[in-house]
Amino acid sequence: MKAVIFAGGVGTRLWPLSRKKSPKQFEKMIDQKSTLQLTVERMRPEFKPEDIFISTGKQYVDTIRKQLPFLPKENIIGEPYKKDVGPAVAYAIACISHKFGKVEPVVILWSDHLVKKLDVFKKILTTAGKVIKEEKNKIVFIGQKPRFASDNLGWIKFGDSKKKEGDLNFYSFEGFKYKPDKALADKYFTDKKHCWNLGYFVSTPEFILNLFERFTPEISRRTLAIQESIGKPSFEEVLEKEYKDMPSINFDNAVLEQLEKESAYVIVEDIGWSDVGAWEALKEALEKHKNDNIVEGKVLLKDSKDNLVYNFEKGTLVVGVDLENLLVVNTGDVTLVAKKTSVSKIKKIVESFEGTENERLT
Question: Any idea where the Nucleotidyl transferase domain is (predicted)?
Answer without folding.
Answer: 2-289
